[in-house]
Each structure stands twice: as structure tokens, then as C-alpha cells.
Amino acid sequence: MASMGGIQENEDEKLILSLPKEKPWAQPYDLYLFQNFWCPGIHIQAVNRFQKYFEAVKDSDVVVASFPKSGTIWIKALTFSIANHHRFPSLENHPLLTTNPHELVPFLEFSFGGNIQDQILHLSNMTEPRIFGTHTPFTSLPKSIKESNCKLVYICRDPFDNFVSAWNYFNKVKPMSLPALTMEEAFEKYCNGIMDYGPWWSHMLGYWNESIANPNKVLFLKYEDLKEDTNFHVKRIAEFLGCPFTQKEESSGVIQSIIKLCSFENMKDLEVNKSGKIGRGGIEKKDFFRKGEKGDWVNYFTPSMQEKLSAIVEEKLSGSGLSFKKCS
Ligand code: A3P
Predict the structure, then answer these.
(1) Residues with CB under 6 A from ligand 1
(2) What is the CA radius of gyration of the chain?
(3) pLDDT string in tens for the chain (328-residue length)
(4) Helix, strand, coil % (nearest 5) of the chain?
(5) Per UniProt, what is one Pfam family of this protein (predicted)?
(6) What is the Cα–Cα distance from 233 to 46, expressed in whole angstroms?
(7) Domain containing 225: what range?
(8) Domain holding 150: CATH number?
(9) For residue 284, what is the enclosing H or E element?
(10) Is residue 193 assigned to a domain?
(11) Distance from residue 195's CA to the centre of ligand 1 (Å)
């Protein structure tokens, strides 16, 4: 492992100062164009270290990847429940009843913000299968993840709803001292790809292309499909992870219990998700739950916004094979 401490801190600082910078979505940090994605300034050091030092990947590891505001918390809860369905067959004492999904499935890049040795030790002590989250684009994942046999489950969301979710979220979690971001300002940024971990199109396409080239490595899911037929996708995830449900488990209702446990209605009402804060930024856990629906964009978009974003979706995703129902 390379030397750390003061020298490393200086190098991180020098790196940040050399990067193009943009204003964020009403947050107290700037966005920097790091490795072709808009990385929040407060995360660059951690992302950079995560790439360098996350070496001991296990074949049984699962990485849940997403663009922010695509249903990360939902897919974390589902993946955790599916991968552990032998360990926690009964939902009575299920960890999700007492622990927030972001705590059960920690973000890898954020785990490398503090003392690296401690964090690596903490990650190596996690019970297997270890399940991690990440917002890092595929191209910037550590080699160790790409080259090992660990699996990646990616969730993406129709950009229209992704934008609405993000605009509501960033304004909700912003510090009181900062002015709210108007919908027009946010939309302009979104259309230009400027949002934490954006551009959204390259984030989606990075995982999409890899899921086609390497379908045993990356499972690409859409929030809307998951909403439409959760049962089918829960089985698909289980098969992908190599822990399919037996006929007996299916008929005894294990899949249905998992779906219910992880449902928006259930999760948002759990005491553990209603109160308290999470992460370094101290985000209220309740702010991860808003409407949990598909198609809410119709309540926000003007015809000209619709026309503009449709054209961008068409242009950016053209020829990739990735499409969203109403835009195709
Ligand atoms: P909305 O703002 O449209 O309601 P992320 O977890 O990536 O931050 O995504 C947040 C979005 O997922 C929010 O969307 C939130 O309400 C929704 N969400 C949270 N839990 C969910 C669940 N269990 N099922 C479906 N959607 C969920």
C-alpha cells in the first residue's frame, strides 16, 4: 500500500485544485470534474483512496451501484434481503427492521474518508456476503472490483423522475443558510450533466454497456421495471447472485415477505428510517423517502422541459439500446 498521511493529504489537495469546478445543487461543497464525472469536493479524497486501496475484494462480495436518486435505498434493502435470505428466513428479527439500509450496505467510497487502515479493517470484518453501495461510475471503479468475480447490481431511473427526485431532495437536505435551487436552475444543470456523480447519461451507459458485455458481472435494472413487477426482478436478482429461491421458499411466501419488507410504504414508516441522521453530512433518514412512485414528473414538467429532456435522452442514449418507455 502506498504511504499515507500528510503527503497523501497534500497530493489530494493539489489534485482537487487542478480540476474544473461547478456550483452544486444548493449544497455546501463544489462539484469537480474528476475522471470525467462531477464528483462532490467532499468525496474526491475518499473516491480517490477507494480506487487505490480497496484491494481485498472477495468473490462473494456484491456491489450495489446507482446514480443518486434512482432508488438506491430500495435496491440496497432488496439486495441485502435476497443475498441473506438463508440467514434471515424469518422477517421477525430482520436487520432491516432496526437498521437503515445505508448502514447495512455502506457506500464504499465514503468508507475511505477517515483513517484508511481502520476502514479497511472494518470492511474486512463485515459478515459475508459483504454488500456495498457505490455511486462511482463504472469506469472509475477500482480494478479490484472489475477484475474479481464479485457481482454488481445497478439500478437506474427514468431521467424525468430522477430529475424531480433530485430537485426535491437537494432542496430538502440543503443547509438553512443556502438559498433553494429553483427548478429552472436545477433543470439547466441536469440537462448539462452537472449533478453529483453525473452526467447521468454516462453513468447509466457505463454500467449498461458493461452489463451487455459481461452479463454475469453486471445486472442492469430500471426502477420502473422493478416497480412494475417486483416479484420477477427479485427472482432475477437472486439467480444473478447465485442464491435462487427454492420452490418451497417460493410457495411459503419468502419472496412476498421480502417485497413487503422493502416496500416504500413499509420502509418509510419504520422507526429506524423515520428518525435520526446518517453519514458525515448528517442527512435526516426520513429524507430518503418522498413519494416512491414512477411518473411523478408529469406534476412538474412544462411542455418545453419535456421537449428539451426528451431530445437529450434521445441524443445521449441513441444507438446504445438503452431506452425508457415514454421516451422511445
Ligand atoms: P422520489 O423522490 O421520487 O420519491 P435514492 O435512494 O437513490 O436516493 O432514491 C430516492 C428515491 O427512491 C426517492 O424517490 C424515494 O422516495 C424512493 N424510494 C425510497 N425507498 C423506496 C422503496 N422502498 N421503494 C421504492 N422507492 C423508494
Answers:
(1) 66, 68-74, 161, 165, 168, 262-264, 267, 288-292, 296
(2) 19
(3) 444 456 667 777 888 889 999 999 999 999 999 999 999 998 888 888 888 888 889 999 999 999 999 999 999 999 999 999 999 987 888 999 999 999 999 998 877 777 777 888 788 889 999 999 999 999 999 999 999 999 999 999 999 999 999 999 999 999 999 999 999 999 999 999 999 999 999 999 999 999 999 999 999 999 999 999 999 999 999 999 999 999 999 999 999 999 999 999 999 999 999 999 987 778 999 999 999 999 999 999 999 999 999 999 999 999 999 999 874 4
(4) 50, 10, 40
(5) Sulfotransfer_1
(6) 32
(7) 30-159+198-295
(8) 3.40.50.300
(9) strand 283-284
(10) no
(11) 17
Active site residue 102: no
Give domain status of residue 253, yes or no: yes
Asked if residue 306 belongs to a domain, the reply is no
Instruction: Count structural domains, the chain.
Output: 1
Tell whether 59 is covered by a domain: yes
**DSSP category for residue 130:** P
Task: Let me know the angle formed at the C-alpha of 323 by 154 and 65, rounded to the nearest 5 degrees.
Answer: 10
Question: Which residue's CA is the closest to the ligand 1 atom numbered 17?
Answer: 292
Mutate which of 69, 226, 233 for ligand 1 pocket (most atoms within 8 A of beta carbon): 69
Q: Angle at CA 285, nearest 5°, toward 207 and 225?
A: 35
One-character DSSP codes across 203-265: HHHHHHHHHHH-TTTEEEEEHHHHHHTHHHHHHHHHHHTT-PPPHHHHHTTHHHHHHHHHSHH
